[in-house]
Fold these 2 entries.
Entry 1:
Amino acid sequence: ARRTGTEPAVPPLLPVPRQGALPLSFAQQRLWFIDQLEPGRSTYNMPFPLRIRGGLEVGALERALTEIVRRHETLRTCFVVVDGEPLQVVREAAPVVLPLVELGGLPEGARDAELARLSRDEARRPFDLATGPLLRVVVVRLGEREAGVLFTLHHIVCDGWSMGILVREVSTLYAAFSRGEEVRLPELPIQYADYAVWQRGWLSGGTLEAEIGWWRERLVGAPTLLELPTDRPRPAVASGAAATRAVRVGADTAARLRALSRREGATPFMTLLSLWQLLLGRYSGREDLLVGTPIAGRNRMETEGLIGFFVNTLVLRADLSGDPTVRELLHRVRERTLGAYQHQELPFEKLVEELGVERSLAHTPLFQVMFSLQNNEGGELELGGAGLEGLGVESASAKFDLTLTLTEEEEIRGGLTYRTGLWEDATIGRMLEHYARLLEEASAHPERRLSEFSLLGAAERAQVLEGWNATAAELPRERRVHELFSEQAARTPDVAAVVFGTRHLTYAELDRRSSQLAHALRRRGVGPETRVALLLERSPELVVAVLGILKAGGAYLPLDPTHPRERLARILEDATAPLLLTRSHLRERLPATAAGVLCLDRDAEEIGREPAGPPPVEVAPQNLAYVIYTSGSTGTPKGVLVEHRALFNYLLWFDRTVLGEHGFALPLVSRLSFDAHVRQLFPPLLRGEPVWVLPEETVADPAALLEALASQERVSFGGVPSLWSALLERVRTGEGPKPRGLVAVLLGGETLSPELVERTRAFFPGVALWNHYGPTEATVNTTVARVEEEGRVTLGRPIANVRVYVLDGAGRPAPLGVPGELYA
């Protein structure tokens, strides 16, 4: 980042003739362009409302402002288009006449409220760049010895430094004029238009190419959109609506931060920035990100006393990779910041143009988060002996997603301005708590690596780890699903237990046939922990087979008849199942296997000779109930081992929470290779209701599936959102009937979109809509949410006796709203 000494000499900054066209500076041109895209907005208004205690002579203030407007051409400049190009036009100087608002007759409380309202309105009232003026001052009379003076300027003619010049010069001139004295400030060596011409002339050719080249090299490959977690989706056009949350860092932490900066040869700005970048990295999950920072841009003596738009914006790239210590991160930030300072002449607007950054109305180019540290020069503001007090009006609009502005004093104070269209105030409050915690911990332990710092305080940690996992429920732990089924069969022997088209099995028949199959399996060595592969289509025999395997003490391993032979062979080999339960016509779909084979059709006579009662088998809660394989979408399919206690916990929770008192018909539409079959197969059997098994051809035909659903008085649909979406489309087009008895929709396995929720509400208002979530590695679901009428779609809360955690890349609990991996 060092200068080589071979750069061309910087030309002198001199006045230019006023006969020709006066160009805009690069920075002015960007603001003019934004104003053309979004006219009538107050995004770049710079309000500066003051309260004066001690009396105000309006005439003296008018004379002072008249002289300042004469003295600074930029305050009487407007911006017009000539031959398609924007140009500066400097108006002739004229006396300033201040509008006066009288509030002295109001009660004190009403007076203050009205002053605050006027301040907000003035801050938000837009300027017309083509006609001007671009400085507004309104005097508000509050009483004989008290007044408000509401300054508002457009950023295109001033910056923060300019505000200080304006206040100082107004104070000097007003003090003299109020005493009846004449005073004239030294004439300025140049005007802002001279600077704009100089800038255009110098930043061209080889100089411009060298600066662009340096920045291009530093920003190559950098992400130009920082996606932080927000409370609301980012709109297509960014809203300027803003609010500001106060920041305060105590004196002890501030002192430690200054001491750390001195030891590491850095400035407090660099230290505070490095930890702000760390926070943004944690929130976004990125190690490479961009943050903007303003720089005064007055590195020439001629510009120091001039009102104008000199401030430039530097883009600072964060590198959080490799888990550095705080000291190492600070050294990285120091090196990059110093390099940027040495190349600060290139206007940000020109950098964006040369890099070819895609423009968007949804967000600012290159970076969306700003950081600045202002040094408080101290001292009381005065106006001819009267005290001046800032009214502290919040920013009228947000230029960026987030703008953190700090002031370094004994303490560190400031504010975080944010787009209210993206975040709630409580979210920003948590963000600032996390930042304060990083400042405190990092200043005390700079030798620690970044991964060792937690954002969570004690209260938030307790909420994340315990509060959201308050799911403990007393459930009987010594019961097994097949035992409960047999007890139900004894109570309702003649009730239909399985319905399949015109066929059905009663509870007595299902209990007898599954017990006979269990005896046949026991004779073939099946017992606790034995895995029995199950290759069957949806049918009554499928229900018999599942219960038979469980009664034998075994764990069923579903195989999907529609899957490729290679996948089935891989599962059989990996699971080492000693026995395959199937039918003759399906056996041909499998390759040769060392497993024994029991065919329900071929061996039906043998099975029918077995005893009708269940075999005496001790099945412990920790024994396997079933083994199910993942899809393999993220790698090789792997088998998930589900124990009886986990299965029973899920089913009892489902019965109490989802089915409730009344229940409903829940068709079996899932294949056994998907764990959604658990909530379609078992719950009816624990209630004395039929398992409603739909044939393959019905499930494959949306119109036929709708016909089946429409045949029931109280029915639900359970499946993946894509299938439900297809059914809704058939209802919309009239290709299938609308199920009038639909009371619940249970969706899972895919993302549930807000659009699908809206379509569901439109066709089935009042239906209970459930969003189930859980990877195959869990027991069916880990979380569930009942989507309220006006609520957002979420993953909900953990089910009974399940704990879930959102962890970051280092395995730390992530704070509320911060993305991470979900673990159960």
Entry 2:
Amino acid sequence: MTDKHIEPSEEVSISRSQEGTVRLVILVLFFLSGACGLTYEVVWMRMLTLVFGATAFATSTILASFFGGLALGGVYFGRVVDKGRNPLLVYALLEAGIGIFAFLMPLLFSGLTEIYVSISRHLAVGFYGISLIRLALSFLVLLIPATLMGGTLPVIIKFFVTRQERLGWHVGQLYAVNTFGAVVGTLTAGFFFILMLGVKETAYVAGFVNLLIAGVVLALGRRPAVRRVVDTRPREREKDRKEIREEAFSSKAAHLALWAIGLSGFCALALEVFWTRALVFFLDNSTHAFTTILTAFLVGIAVGSLLIARFVDTNRKLLAWLGSTEILIGVSAILAIPILSNSPPVFQSMADVSVDSMLPWKWMGMRFVNSLAVMLVPTVLMGMAFPLASKIYVRNVNRVGTALGNVYAVNTIGGVFGSVVAGFALIPLIGVQNGIILIAAINVIIGCVLVLSEPGMQYRMRLVTVVGLGLLSGSVGTFYLTSGAIILTSYYEEIESPEVLSYEEGIGATVKVYDDRVGDRTLSVNGFPVAGTALTMQDIQRALAHLPLLLSNVPSPRVNIVGFGSGGTSWGVMQYDVAAVDCVELVPAVVAAAGWFPETNHGVLSDPRFNLIRGDGRNYALVTDEEYDVISVDATSPKMAGNGSLYALEFYELLKERLSNDGLLVQWLPFHLLSDREVRMIAKTFLTAFPHSTLWFTPLRQYVILVGTQESLEVDFQSLSGKLAMSNVQRELEPLNVTDPIDFLGSFVMGEEALARYAGDADINTDNRPYLEFVPAMAYFVSDMYLLRNLRNLMDSRESVFPSLINIGETNEKIAAVVERVQKRFEATQHSISGDILLRLGMQEQAEAEYNTALQIDPQEKNWLNTIWLYPRR
């Protein structure tokens, strides 16, 4: 038997066939790599914000560290792969390293937490000092994995690119494929994996995929045909070196393109920050909204990169192409401004959509459409910039790894600076609209310089192009500059027809104060009302202050408040004999708005006993070693992005460590915004940390409050009576119809055993399984249903406060009289709560019958009067 003779031409044919198959496999693997990369960004950002806090400075520090590592990886591994002979081996090692770190990161984060807490407690370094420490620590822990990720693009391009005339196609194709993978990673992590598997487990899945990619690439690299292809690459490049030099752009053009792509990255990320700040008003401020915005942004980038890839290698006037692209980015960004100012909120667009199992998907689709309406054209143009700049900058295909690493690094670093400058300087100083116009102007200037530098065009043609596009962008920008700044308005604010009194686009959030023209003022953060002068707002603000102080048996307690709002809770706490009050507020502009609510906060900021701490409430609980007797958590809805961590088991356990032995914790539970399952989940989570928990209505029964104590709650009737007799406390509570202890005790819902039965076997909301934040927020569509169902369930589980009462009276007669009043009030409020439910259903006559029954049992039960006022006849 003789070996089959293979002609040289046949061997080449076989090699090329094998190469085509390998390229297709590598494209699929690079797609998966992109998905893993964005998964890590989402997951590690969540983990690190739990350590450093959710402030704008902390999150920017984390992002800067992550992207800094990516840039370093692009530069370093681009040079490494240019020195070696086998880019597939380097790529496999990079993917394997990323996968290994996916499994190591939780352990590293745990050690990082201990270091950070120790530094924060023992070194008085101030705000900027701690910011630098955060930067150093986050960079330290993210350096290696982010560097490995940053190296994948130049390394894999090194394998694909053999000839200069196909460079643009391969760069555009690979960049698009990786970015489409990033789209999938963002969607799957944000909508599925974190909810179904957990945060750590999502990272582990991505790590397994990275290891799988590494294994497949190593297996491919061992195949003889593939090894022959890899081994012949250096000889092919040497052979084509003369042709490459003839085709390459000049050194001047290359450096100009590098500067342009850096500034383009700066502008792109700055625009993303502006669009995100604006779009949350129309989409909602949930985690899923941010996921949708990022997805839409990446889709545009990927589409643009793929589109230009087909044309970039056939055109020699690439400086003009890149310049025109930059000018059009600026023009399209400005033209998108009216979409931002006139878009109806997405849930308003879905007002007629039926409530069914498909509603979350329809909602997600509408969010995506709204995001694309603003970002699609400019992001598609942004996606074209990277392949164009790469084609110009890479002057020697034998050094493609180094050159592409430089382009990638400069673009990434530009993006870091763009996001920081936009978030910390431009938005606070000139606002979203003017910021967009300024960044668009930079894009136009970049474009004009590039077009004027194009050697392949006649000077007159270059001048005509620049003048024409410049006039277009200038006239559009001037129009919007002179037409007045847009004021972003959400669904919640729009239904009030507000008159805006104060509007500040500050660092981290947009804060607005508006008058609803009924005489009430409201404070909103990113479109979500958080505090104000309305009776419903006073109901929760005063309850979070007075409920814990009335129940506390600690003389001169130390108090910690999480959330300042309009200052109503802070002022309420100061009406008692407190030793000190530490209030933590995340958003600086919220504090600045306090002057609009003098009747609510009464200038509490100037009280020497009151200490305002600007930062993240959870982070403060992590790093402080202070002990408190009362902690009041005025967190906003757990459905808002980042707020779920304030309803997590780990947060409650941190607060338990901060409480004294006789201390107590209270937290708002917004049952009108949550499903029955979610309400029970919060109760179960709270009970896990505080087994001795009770549940209370706010005085007007608009909300409920969880109260956690170290031991079983004992309500000292005599102490309660004395506090309620204080004139300043009476002034605060009389508008809420709380004038004596019986009125206060009538708000009791259930004790620890009943609350445990109510919570049942509900899931526990944790940092690793953040159900509350990742289950779609449906209250926009079914808030009435949520409220009614939860109110019914609470009423069915409700019990009398009597077993928790102590020190009721000195004589049996007095004790009996108090017990009788407490029991009557309980029975009466059961009927008035039933009346509340019927009234909300529009059943006026039946509601009035229940209210009359309540009055017959206890003529002093009068909180239902406020319910009538709040919910008039329909």
